[in-house]
Automatic annotation (TrEMBL):
Source species, domain of life: Archaea
Protein name: Methyltransferase domain-containing protein
PROSITE patterns found in the cross-reference section: SAM_TRM61 (PS51620)
GO molecular function: methyltransferase activity
Species this protein is from: Halorubrum rutilum
Length: 246
């Protein structure tokens, strides 16, 4: 993976910039050297110093260009943890969107083929993969995965199948043809109805170890009065259906 962009940080300010880029701020103009590296310090023309940091996973969520609501880091973490996707794995993904999950998978070393039906979204995702430094590992295809299932099923099987689309059950029905033996499936859905359909499709396909998780995260608050979970809400984002190919 190559470092395609860096964060220039000072206090609560963060600017995502590429080597050779010039960017104006109220603290002066930042002129990023071509040979910049993480850990360097870059000063504006007014002498204000910014620390240079390499792009990390959480930075992708905060700084990649968005085309909608991207998958939350906690959901990405669950997908990564339950599929175990890593270097050398081949991952088939659908519902690219902003490309947060695809970028994480690529940065973990997996080779990802991801489908996005919206051509403009796909263009943004390709640019985001370059920013994340994984354009050589993540291929963003414009199109509907359901229309490519026959061709993909005849090719080399994938190690993991990750889906974030309304028609995910149609793909799940063919999961045993798309995955290697023991390969992992992860389906994300914000709605119970879509989740149930994915579970039924997984059962029909004869997949093993089918389970469904609701993703909830509560922030903790610590004060002089005491410690407790935040009352701002339970932090529900969606449901994950997980399974493995027989």
């Amino acid at each position: 993976m190559t470092d395609a962009a860096y964060l220039l940080v000072r206090d609560d300010r963060e600017y995502l910039l590429e080597p050779g880029e010039e960017f104006g701020t109220d603290l002066g103009v930042l002129d990023v050297p071509e040979d910049v590296e993480g850990g360097d310090t870059v000063e504006t023309h007014l002498g204000t110093a910014f620390a240079v940091r390499e792009l990390r996973g959480p930075d992708l969520f905060n700084h990649l260009e968005r085309t909608g609501a991207p998958m939350m880091p906690r959901d990405v973490g669950l997908v990564m943890g339950h599929t175990g996707a890593s270097g050398g794995d081949r991952v088939l993904d659908a519902g690219t969107g902003t490309g947060i999950l695809a970028a994480y998978l690529g940065r973990a070393g997996a080779d990802v083929t991801t489908y996005e039906v919206d051509a403009e979204f796909a263009d943004v995702a390709r640019a985001n993969m370059a920013t994340a430094g994984v354009a050589d590992r993540v291929e963003v295809r414009t199109g509907d995965l359901t229309e490519e299932l026959d061709a993909l099923a005849e090719g080399e099987p994938f190690d993991a199948l990750t889906l974030d689309t309304g028609d995910a059950p149609t793909v799940v029905e063919r999961a045993d043809e798309l995955l290697v033996s023991g390969g992992c499936l992860a389906v994300y859905s914000p709605f119970v109805e879509g989740t149930r359909e994915a579970v039924l499709a997984a059962r029909e396909a004869g997949l093993d170890g089918i389970e469904t998780l609701e993703t909830i995260q509560r922030e903790m608050e610590f004060s002089e009065r005491g410690s407790r979970p935040s009352t701002a809400g339970v932090g529900h984002t969606g449901y994950l259906v997980l399974a493995r190919a027989p």
